[in-house]
């Protein structure tokens, strides 16, 4: 298992242009599989355009304590790109005025940003309905200074969304690294202890499942039930909802697909599972993604591919919702990941 | 002609059998789809049965398909291997139970 990002290893796929080139490469160029734009058209969709902005997703930086094999961010301890307090101030301006009902902080491990707590304190006073922090769980156990994060989250009414690839140790550690499972279990128990995830509790704790390999997620409800039963029985852990997220062929997951010779089969599986019903609710139609340096993207995936919004407004400092909403969403073949099967978004299935 | 009897890429083309016999092909895939829906047995249980049978009928396409299906459903490798053993036990039992026929015949023919 790698301990450094693709960027630190100076791998070819650290280059976003190279990734985009592969995503529009021979498999699609030859006509074997249809380009996403053509597939949209043949199922009766014009270009994708946003509806009302509901979710503001802010990436506080690519630094992370883990180096997960499937990470589309190519995050890791060696990534130094993190949001400054100045950019956070610009974000807060938008948070205070936007009509979006959800604020979603992600990373990397957002908690590693030295201004994370300051930002959460400020943002929690802005009257946002649903304030999400995407926590990888192990960060809570990584260092003493993070041990009180459950209490901190609870104090500010943060909705915690955490990744756990499987309810067994073997599968979790294979994707995320040795020891990750035990630390994650301990962190979940700590979150439960302060009231997160228990039945009827207003402190929301949801889990994210993404497949640990070159296959699509199964039925979200069935997996949620399996996770609930196993975590309760084995560790006494409770949580609210499980979101299944399809791995998109970007960064380290793309690198894995190619190295394991699964790329063609995986792309074929995504294209075969194309579901027009999922297109109607893809997250790029209600989300704006903000990068650590304040640029705006249609989604976190486009952010990692360096595909900024196709609009006059491209930076949080110039944010104007009405102007920004009048745009066409930037697409490529990775978009098949969000329209496969029951669909996929940062909130799980979309159908 | 292809140089191999089995080509992994052919699995993706399974649906094409309908092109040469629309009615029968569609009837088969409708039936197939219904069989694996949630019923008195869960879809998860049926996936494990399908994996065991795939081994017994020694279909490489089916083994690929139901290993992947199991992964998608969060089925563990231990569960998968136990299912394969269940299939293998029935298959070897089916061979061995004929040993009784051999014994019967032996006894009948012997003085």
Record keyword descriptors for this entry.
heterodimer, A: 351 residues, alpha/beta, TIM Barrel, 16 helices, 10% strand, B: 111 residues, mainly alpha, AhpD-like, 5 helices, extended
Describe the SSE topology.
The complex is a heterodimer of chains A (351) and B (111).
Chain A: H1 16-23, H2 26-29, H3 36-42, E1 55-59, H4 85-97, E2 102-106, H5 116-123, E3 130-135, H6 138-142, H7 149-155, E4 159-163, H8 169-176, H9 180-193, E5 205-209, H10 220-235, E6 242-244, H11 251-259, H12 263-272, H13 276-279, E7 287-290, E8 296-297, H14 300-304, H15 321-324, H16 336-339
Chain B: H1 17-20, H2 22-35, H3 43-56, H4 60-72, H5 77-109
Helix pairs in contact in B: 3-4, 3-5
Domain Carboxymuconolactone decarboxylase-like (chain B): 23-101
Protein name (chain B): Arsenosugar biosynthesis-associated peroxidase-like protein
Organism (chain B): Robiginitalea aurantiaca
């Amino acid at each position: 298992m790698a301990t450094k990002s693709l960027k630190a290893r100076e791998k070819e796929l650290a280059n976003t242009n190279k990734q985009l080139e592969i995503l529009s490469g021979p498999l699609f160029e030859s006509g074997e599989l249809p380009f996403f734009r053509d597939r949209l058209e043949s199922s009766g969709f014009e270009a994708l355009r946003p509806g009302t902005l509901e979710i503001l997703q802010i990436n506080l930086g690519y630094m992370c304590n883990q180096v997960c094999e499937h990470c589309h961010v190519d995050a890791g301890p060696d990534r130094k790109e993190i949001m400054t307090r100045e950019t956070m101030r610009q974000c807060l301006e938008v948070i205070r005025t936007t009509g979006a009902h959800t604020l979603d902080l992600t990373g990397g491990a957002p908690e590693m940003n030295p201004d994370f707590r300051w930002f959460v304190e400020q943002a929690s006073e802005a009257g946002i309905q649903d304030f999400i922090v995407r926590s990888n769980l192990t960060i809570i156990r990584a260092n003493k200074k993070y041990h009180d994060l459950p209490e901190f989250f609870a104090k500010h009414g943060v909705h915690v969304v955490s990744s756990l690839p499987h309810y067994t140790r073997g599968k979790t550690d294979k994707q995320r690294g040795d020891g990750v499972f035990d630390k994650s279990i301990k962190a979940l128990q700590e979150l439960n202890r302060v009231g997160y995830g228990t039945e009827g509790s207003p402190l929301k704790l949801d889990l994210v499942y993404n497949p640990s390999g070159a296959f699509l997620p199964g039925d979200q409800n069935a997996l949620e039930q399996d996770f609930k039963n196993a975590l309760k029985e084995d560790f006494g852990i409770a949580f609210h909802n499980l979101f299944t997220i399809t791995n998109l062929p970007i960064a380290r997951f793309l690198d894995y697909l190619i190295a394991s010779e699964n790329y063609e089969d995986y792309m074929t599986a995504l294209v075969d599972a194309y579901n027009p019903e999922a297109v109607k609710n893809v997250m790029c139609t209600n989300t704006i993604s903000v990068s650590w340096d304040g640029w705006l993207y249609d989604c976190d995936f486009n952010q990692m591919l360096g595909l900024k919004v196709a609009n006059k407004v491209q930076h949080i400092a110039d944010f104007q919702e009405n102007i920004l909403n009048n745009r066409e969403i930037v697409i490529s073949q990775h978009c098949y990941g969000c329209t496969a099967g029951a669909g996929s978004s940062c909130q799980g299935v979309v159908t | 002609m292809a140089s191999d009897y089995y080509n992994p890429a052919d699995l993706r083309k399974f649906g094409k059998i309908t092109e040469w016999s629309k009615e029968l092909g569609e009837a088969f895939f409708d039936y197939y789809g219904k069989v694996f829906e949630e019923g008195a047995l869960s879809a998860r249980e049926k996936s494990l049965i399908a994996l065991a049978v795939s081994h017994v009928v020694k279909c490489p396409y089916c083994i690929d398909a139901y290993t992947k299906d199991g992964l998608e459903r969060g089925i563990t490798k231990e569960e998968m291997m136990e299912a394969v053993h269940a299939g293998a036990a029935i298959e070897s039992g089916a061979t061995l139970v004929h040993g009784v026929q051999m014994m019967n015949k032996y006894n009948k023919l012997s003085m």
